[in-house]
Amino acid sequence: MAAATDELSLVFQALADPTRRAILSRLHAGPTTVGELAEPFAMSRPAISQHLKVLERAGLIERTATAQWRTCTLRTEPLDEASAWVERHRGEWNERFDLLDEHLRSMKEQS
Amino acid sequence: MAAATDELSLVFQALADPTRRAILSRLHAGPTTVGELAEPFAMSRPAISQHLKVLERAGLIERTATAQWRTCTLRTEPLDEASAWVERHRGEWNERFDLLDEHLRSMKEQS
DNA sequence: CCACTGCGTAAGCAACTCCTTAATTAATGA
DNA sequence: TCATTAATTAAGGAGTTGCTTACGCAGTGG
């Protein structure tokens, strides 16, 4: 059901597949055509096309058509958002320990 | 198909749902019973149970049974792994800009 | 012992995912 | 013009997800 169409969900969902993560890693070397991207995978071309669609929907890549080649380019802005969420949740947890620490210290001072 | 059972995929998939992210946020306030967790959501109790199962499978929570209450506790280790992936991919991109910067500077010096 | 509480599992359903093969579109070049 | 190359769309199938309602199972307290 649901399909969770909010931006953050789309990004995390896009990252929740090894093939798509590998594609993103590959794109760090620079813009690449679909055929070049598909080459290392034991998977049909349309399958890759569909993975790219998921990545595009999440805003993680851009596709521009020059001649009969589609060039894929990486976009990292959505990763910033995802990073912010994860870091915030790791951070808050540490804050709790910090608060506990502080609490224990103030208790010690009172005794 | 596929189901992508590697650890990182499980974590990202767990995070790819607003309800589950809200549950994790809620758990930052400390360990909580399932009923307490379910209360703010317009959703049946079993639905929450199933979300918790997904979070547990990803290693993001632990469930311990004391009396007839199941207490859910946050675990952030898997978030470290997810964070590492995201940061690495953001970082590499920035490196590329750094290299471009350096390149442009050296070109400027030559002219 | 028995009803009640807290939570899980079971079964079922619509929607989605991830792959496939076959057909289609679009640009290149002999 | 027509075959070739690059990629997408279409259609379909097996499996998964996210919810529901109904039921089951421990632990509590009368």
TrEMBL record, chains A, B:
GO MF terms, alphabetically ordered: DNA-binding transcription factor activity
Domain HTH arsR-type as annotated: residue spans: 1-94
Domain of life: Bacteria
InterPro entries: ArsR-like_HTH, HTH_ArsR_DNA-bd_dom, WH-like_DNA-bd_sf, WH_DNA-bd_sf
Matches recorded under PROSITE patterns: HTH_ARSR_2 (PS50987)
Pfam family, one: HTH_20
Gene3D superfamilies with a match to the protein in the record: Winged helix-like DNA-binding domain superfamily/Winged helix DNA-binding domain
Protein name: ArsR family transcriptional regulator
Organism: Agromyces tardus
Source lineage: Bacteria, Bacillati, Actinomycetota, Actinomycetes, Micrococcales
